[in-house]
Design brief:
single chain; 456 residues; alpha+beta; Rossmann fold; 6-stranded mixed sheet; 11 strands; 14% strand; VWFA domain-containing protein; protein serine/threonine kinase activity; vWFA_dom_sf
Length: 456
């Protein structure tokens, strides 16, 4: 798929993203640092570059130029150099005491998952993405009076390509975000990319402020009182709810079909030491990954094409289980229709062009220096909120497929999932994260690994 719409969307939205994060999270724009790591593929699949790290900058104009320099091409076999990009993000020069967030935007898996047509059985740079995820989870030591250091990973899944073209990608990305305490968010419309970035960053900043407040208590409950992490999360949610505290929340409606096989695969990836050791345990998911109503969204179905072209195939085989020849035929049909759609929209408005169902791979990072005292956010109203997201009660619309998955962005009571992430991140950054569990850096005590489960 073409990277163009997502590069264009990021370039167009970067100033608005910076302003909204600054006002919503109460952080000076001078303290916001953005980075961009573009990735393609390893030779001989791509001979241009594997990763391109533009470094951090607080200058929005520089970030715009960095995005403008990207060329939407490269790759060749489907899986790409996501592992190399994550390794680059892990080892880049982050500022001490800063909040660190990595957002991976992709429509394909990394090498080594066992996807049909993958020319590598592991990442050619010898890095393993599961190990990188565990290092991200444990990176950083909390300084109680200065602010925490943390690295949280989100995956924005460009759909329907990610789920319809690959057998293992969705389960794998669910696993690495389980390890890091992040989330997988489905993106079906390129022009919503900026809203997703703002929402995830602001929610993470507010969640971190709760981690700063409760981390010592959580560690005491888990390591000294031997309470299960799940029970600690439940107690934390109830305690915060009783105080009447609400935090900014970014929720995207779940578009995926959850099968037992998919959940077992995700658990296998999460608990494996390496991707190679997990491959024998994962199984193909034959049923459609995306719920039918979302596959029929106007944002996804091309003019003149049958809904089955981009959704579950009514003849009995799913897109994820098709043969290489069938996949090639489908791709040729899609390319022909994309050319037709391009010609049809040449005279259309910019808004219409922004909704073309194309996809990209790039890895932006947001780094925010926190030096101001903890406080509740006061500016999450219309001027700061993404325009397409409601500010009313946190409920989803009755007709989500009209514009893709419904989303909510605003103040809400802390959810069990958010409480789980607070507990997980509090423990992981004070522990060695292993396949056996979390090993305390102070006492050496081991507690079982917490597996929230699910891309959301």
């Amino acid at each position: 798929m073409s990277q163009g719409p997502y590069i264009a969307a990021a370039r167009k939205a970067i100033r608005d993203i910076c302003a909204k994060i600054s006002s919503s999270a109460d952080i000076s724009q001078k303290l916001l640092r953005f980075g961009l790591i573009a990735f393609r593929d390893h030779p001989p699949m791509d001979m241009t570059y594997v990763t391109k790290n533009s470094g951090f900058t607080s200058d929005v104009a520089i970030m715009e130029r960095n995005l403008a320099s990207l060329i939407a091409s490269g790759g060749g076999d489907g899986p790409e150099a996501q592992t190399a990009a994550l390794a680059e993000a892990l080892n880049t020069e982050w500022a001490e005491g800063a909040a660190k967030i990595v957002i991976l935007i992709t429509d394909s898996p990394p090498h080594g998952l066992g996807e049909r047509g993958d020319h590598f059985d592991k990442s050619p740079d010898q890095n393993d993405p599961l190990e990188i995820a565990r290092q991200m989870a444990e990176h950083g030591i909390t300084l109680p009076t200065y602010g925490s250091k943390y690295r949280v990973q989100f995956v924005i899944a460009c759909e329907p390509t990610l789920s319809s073209s690959y057998t293992h990608a969705l389960d794998f990305y669910g696993a690495i975000t389980d390890i890091t305490g992040g989330r997988v968010l489905p993106l079906m419309m390129a022009d919503k990319l900026g809203d997703y970035i703002v929402g995830t960053v602001v929610e993470t900043v507010e969640t971190e402020r709760l981690i700063e407040e409760f981390e010592k208590v959580i560690l005491d409950d888990v390591y000294n009182k031997s309470q299960p992490m799940e029970a600690v999360a439940q107690n934390l949610q109830q305690f915060i709810a009783d105080r009447g505290v609400q935090i900014t929340t970014m929720n995207v409606e779940d578009i995926y079909n959850r099968s037992d096989v998919s959940r077992q695969n995700q658990s296998a990836w999460t608990g494996a030491a390496t991707i190679g050791s997990a491959r024998a345990q994962v199984k193909p998911v034959t049923e459609p990954r995306i719920q039918q109503q979302y596959m029929q969204s106007p944002a996804l179905v091309l003019p003149g094409s049958p809904p089955s072209l981009l959704s579950a195939n009514p003849t009995g085989f799913s897109v994820t289980a098709m043969s290489a020849m069938q996949r090639q035929q489908l791709e040729m049909q899609r390319q022909a229709m994309m050319q037709t759609l391009k010609r049809q929209t040449e005279a259309a408005s910019q808004q219409q062009r922004s909704q073309m169902p194309q996809h990209a791979q790039m890895l932006p990072m947001q780094q925010m220096q926190q030096t101001q005292p903890m406080q509740q956010m006061q500016q999450m109203q219309q001027s700061a909120s993404p325009a397409y997201l409601p500010t009313a009660a946190p409920t989803f619309g009755s007709s989500p497929s009209a514009q893709g998955p419904a989303a909510y962005y605003g103040k809400a009571p802390i959810s069990q999932q958010q409480a789980t992430r607070i507990v997980q991140q509090s423990v992981s950054r004070n522990s060695k994260v292993t396949t056996a569990g979390y090993v305390s850096k102070t006492s050496g005590q081991t507690v079982p690994q917490m597996r929230p489960g699910g891309p959301q």
